[in-house]
Amino acid sequence: HKLSGKVEELEYLIKRRTQSPYGQVEGQGVGPGGLGGSGGVQGYNSSNMEATGGGVKAVPPSIVPLAPLEEDETFAKTLPANASRVFSQALSKIREGNFQESLSSLQQLIQQGEKTEWSANVLFWLGVTYDGLGEDKNALRAYNDLIVQFPRHKRVPLALYRQSQNLQRLGDKKSANLLLRKIVGEYPDTSEGARAKEDLKKF
Questions:
Q1: Do 200 and 184 meet the contact criterion of CB atoms below 8 Å apart?
Q2: Which H or E run contains 200?
Q3: Which of 56, 133, 172, 194 has the fewest Cβ atoms surrounding its Cβ within 10 A?
Q4: Positions of E strands within 13-54
Q5: CATH number assigned to the domain covering 3-19+32-41+60-200
Q6: pLDDT, tens digit, for every residue of 41-60?
Q7: pLDDT at 117 (0 to 100)
Q8: CA 197, CA 152: separation in Å to the nearest integer?
Q9: For 120-142, how does the pLDDT look when each residue is reduced to its tens digit (9 = 90+)?
Q10: CA–CA separation, 160 and 185 (whole Å)
C-alpha cells in the first residue's frame, strides 16, 4: 500500500473510534490506571512543587506536557478578560492534576461557540484533560478536532503523537503504528517526529 492510502485508512479508523460525543458513557469504563497507560496520572502531589519567579507552583502529573503548559499559562494572560480567567483557571487545575474541574472550565469555553485563534489551545488541553481522566476515546476526538480545524497549528504534531498513545492504550496497535509513521513522514524535524521514530522501533 502507498502511504497515502494508509493515512486515509488511519483517518477512517480514528473517525470510527471517535463517533461518540465528549463525555458520553463510552469513555467511562476507562478510569486512570485502566488500559495501562493513563495510570501514571495519580493526580496532584502536594509535595511536588517547583519554585518560580511568581511563587511556588505544583509540578504537574507526568501525563501533562510541562513546556506547553508554561507557554499557555503566559498566553492565557493575553486573552480577553473572561476567556483569560476561565482558561487560566483550567490550566491551573490541570497543573494540580484536578482534571474533572479543568474539564468543566474547558467545556465552558468550547460551549461559547467562538472559533478563535486560541480555540486550538483549548482543544489541546481538552485532550490532555481526557488523558488525565483516562478517557482515551474522548481524548482522541479532542485532538482530532484540533488537527482537522487547525491543521497548521504548532500543537498538531504533539496532538498526533498523543493520539498514537491513546490508540496504544486502546489496544489498536495497527492505527498507532500508522499514525507514528505519519508523524515521522510529515514532521521529521520535530521532537515528536524523533519520539515517533523511537516508538516505531518497539513495534
A1: yes
A2: helix 191-200
A3: 56
A4: 49-52
A5: 1.25.40.10
A6: 333 333 444 544 455 688 99
A7: 78
A8: 22
A9: 999 999 999 999 999 999 999 99
A10: 12
> Domain map of the chain by residue range?
3-19+32-41+60-200
CA separation for the pair 80, 78 (Å, rounded): 7
* Model pLDDT for residues 61-103, shown as the tens digit of each residue: 999 999 999 999 999 999 999 999 999 999 999 999 999 999 9
Work out the pLDDT band at 15, boundaries 50, 70, 90: low
The residue with cell 503504528 is 177
Bridge partner list, 57: 50
Residue 75, burial from CB neighbour count under 10 angstroms (0-12, 13-18, 19+)? middle
69 contacts: CB under 8 Å, gap ≥ 6: 60, 91, 94, 95
Q: How many CA atoms lie within 13 A of 119 on its CB side?
A: 16
pLDDT of residue 115: 74
Quick one: cell of 10? 488511519
| Contact in structure between 94 and 64 (CB atoms under 8 Å) | yes
3-state secondary structure of 53: coil
**CA nearest to 203, candidates 163, 168, 157, 170:** 168
